Amino acid sequence: MKRIYVKEEACIACRLCEVYCQVEHSQSKDLVKTFKKEHPQPLPFSRLEERKPVSFSVRCFHCDEPACVYACLTGALQKNPETGVVTVDTEKCVGCWTCILACQFGAIRQDLLQGKMAKCDLCPGKDVPVCVSNCPNEALVYAEIESDVPQIKG
C-alpha cells in the first residue's frame, strides 16, 4: 500500500500541506472561498510539528495494525483490506475520542464543531494526495513501502 512519508530535512514549515488539505476537503474546493466564505472552515487532516531544527507533517499513517480501529467503540473506523486505507464512517462516530487516545502518532484530530474525529483519508479519487502534490520542497513522498515506519529520510 502507498503511504505518505516525510523527508524532514526538506520541510520548511510553510504549512501548505495544511492549506491544500483544507481546500481539498472544503465544499467549494477553491482557495479564496475556503478561507474567506466558508464557515466553519474545514479542519486540515494533517498538522505541522515544529521541533527545531526540524519540522514535519503529521497525518494518519494507515498502519498495518491500526490501534485506532481496534479502539473504536462504534465501528466508525475500518481498515479496507484491499487498499489498506483506514476510513471513517462519520455517521457512526460519536466523538468519544478513544481513537485519539489509541493513536501512537497523534494523527487523529478532534473536529469540535462537528463533534467527530478527523483524519487523513489520502484524498480519495486522486492519484496523489494534495498535500504531496503541492509541497514546494517535495518534503512529502507518496510511496509504496511495506512497513509501519512513520517517516523516511532522503
Overall description:
The chain has 154 residues and is of the alpha+beta class. It has 2 domains: 1-59 and 124-154, no CATH class; 63-119, 2-Layer Sandwich (Alpha-Beta Plaits), CATH 3.30.70. It is built from 5 helices and 8 strands. It has helices at 16-24, 31-36, 67-71, 98-102, 130-133; strands at residues 2-6, 47-51, 54-58, 77-79, 86-88, 109-111, 116-118, 140-144. The strands form 4 sheets. A two-stranded antiparallel ribbon has the order 1-8. A two-stranded antiparallel ribbon has the order 2-3. The longest helix is centred in the first third of the chain and has 9 residues, at 16-24. The protein starts with a strand and ends in a 10-residue tail after the last strand. 30% of the residues are buried. The model has no long low-confidence stretch (mean pLDDT 89).
